[in-house]
């Protein structure tokens, strides 16, 4: 199992440039990450982009709605939670990927600026993602989306929030979901897996940072075994089909595999998209050919889950 050649050429710079967030406060880490963000002066065009907000349990939740160019009156819709360790990143940080996935899937993407930790600890972020998902179901006609084709998705920490939102929706009886899209998700607060041992140092997303993310979002150890924090502890029966992306050189690889296995064992349809040469977060790195290959494969896998029959 080898690193993707492009990543291999960059990994030293990527790893060396990763800020020591575990030595910072949440606000300091957020400011550091934001200061490094470069706005794309020529973003990929989509049909339309609208910034608005949704009422949530802790106040208004900013969202960004991406619509593809389409004549359809009712499109699939993905409620998307960005990564960032529950602490940083925002609508802007994932704008490029949401635009690209909107075009590749032909679905409406709704990016969620959920409340961030540590100021808003668990389960605030997951409740925000569920609130937006419920709003989408309630307003499907107005939004021009298909209420039968609602997906929750996210990358890294956002993958955790998407998985938890799916659990919450099942447990609370609504909204009905068609699929979940989990890109190298944070699944369990376990830091001794083989992939942590192999890739917890030198592969861009170091173990101390990953542990620190959990400390910010779920500071009480006793809460970390709750299914709405660590979905791997949940009863997974009755969940919607899942597309799970696995990066081979990722400390989180093994927990992603374990979750895919557990979903399948519970009777959930699972499509695995393994990218052995990838590192954590690679799909948000547009300079990588592997990122674009993954976006294409994942989009096709999601559409196969949503539209399995040509008659659909």
Q: How is the secondary structure organized here?
A:
Elements: H1 5-17, H2 26-35, E1 48-56, E2 59-67, E3 75-81, H3 95-105, E4 108-112, H4 124-138, H5 140-143, E5 145-155, H6 157-172, E6 179-183, H7 194-199, H8 207-217, E7 242-249, H9 253-265, E8 270-279, H10 289-306
Parallel strand pairs: 3-4, 3-5, 5-6, 6-7, 7-8
Antiparallel strand pairs: 1-2, 2-4
Helix pairs in contact: 3-10, 4-6
The largest beta-sheet arranges its strands as 1-2-4-3-5-6-7-8
Distance between the termini: 39 Å
Unreliable residue runs: none
Number of helices: 10
Explain this structure to me?
This protein is of the alpha/beta class and 312 residues long. 38% of the residues lie in helices and 21% in strands. The chain contains ten helices and eight strands. The protein has helices spanning 5-17, 26-35, 95-105, 124-138, 140-143, 157-172, 194-199, 207-217, 253-265, 289-306, and strands spanning 48-56, 59-67, 75-81, 108-112, 145-155, 179-183, 242-249, 270-279. Strands 1-2-4-3-5-6-7-8 form an eight-stranded mixed β-sheet, with helices on both faces. The longest helix has 18 residues, at 289-306. It is globular. The protein starts with a helix and ends in a 6-residue tail after the last helix. The model has no long low-confidence stretch (mean pLDDT 97).
């Amino acid at each position: 199992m080898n690193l993707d050649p492009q990543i291999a050429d960059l990994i030293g710079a990527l790893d060396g440039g990763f800020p020591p967030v575990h030595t910072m406060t949440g606000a300091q880490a957020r400011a550091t990450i934001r200061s490094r963000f470069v706005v794309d002066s020529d973003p990929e065009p989509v049909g339309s982009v609208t910034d608005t907000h949704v009422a949530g349990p802790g106040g208004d939740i900013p969202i960004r709605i991406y619509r593809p160019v389409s004549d359809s009156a009712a499109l699939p819709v993905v409620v998307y939670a960005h990564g960032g360790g529950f602490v940083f990143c925002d609508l802007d940080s994932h704008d490029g990927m949401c635009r690209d996935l909107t075009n590749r899937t032909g679905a409406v993407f709704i990016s969620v600026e959920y409340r961030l930790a540590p100021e808003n600890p668990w389960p605030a972020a997951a409740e925000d993602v569920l609130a937006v998902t419920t709003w989408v179901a309630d307003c499907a006609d107005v939004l021009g989306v298909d209420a039968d084709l609602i997906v929750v998705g996210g990358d890294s920490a956002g993958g955790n929030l998407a998985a938890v939102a799916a659990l919450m929706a099942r447990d609370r009886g609504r909204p009905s979901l068609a699929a979940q899209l989990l890109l190298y998700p944070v699944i369990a607060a376990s830091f001794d897996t083989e992939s942590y041992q192999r890739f917890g140092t030198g592969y861009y997303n170091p173990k101390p940072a990953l542990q620190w993310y959990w400390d910010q979002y779920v500071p009480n150890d006793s809460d970390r075994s709750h299914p709405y924090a660590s979905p791997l502890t949940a009863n997974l029966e009755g969940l919607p089909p899942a597309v799970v992306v696995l990066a081979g050189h990722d400390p989180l690889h093994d927990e992603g595999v374990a979750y895919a296995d557990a979903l399948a064992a519970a009777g959930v349809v699972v499509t695995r998209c393994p990218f052995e040469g990838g590192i954590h977060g690679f799909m948000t790195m547009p300079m990588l050919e592997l990122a674009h290959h993954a976006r294409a494969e994942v989009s096709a896998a999601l559409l196969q889950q949503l539209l399995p029959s040509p008659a659909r």
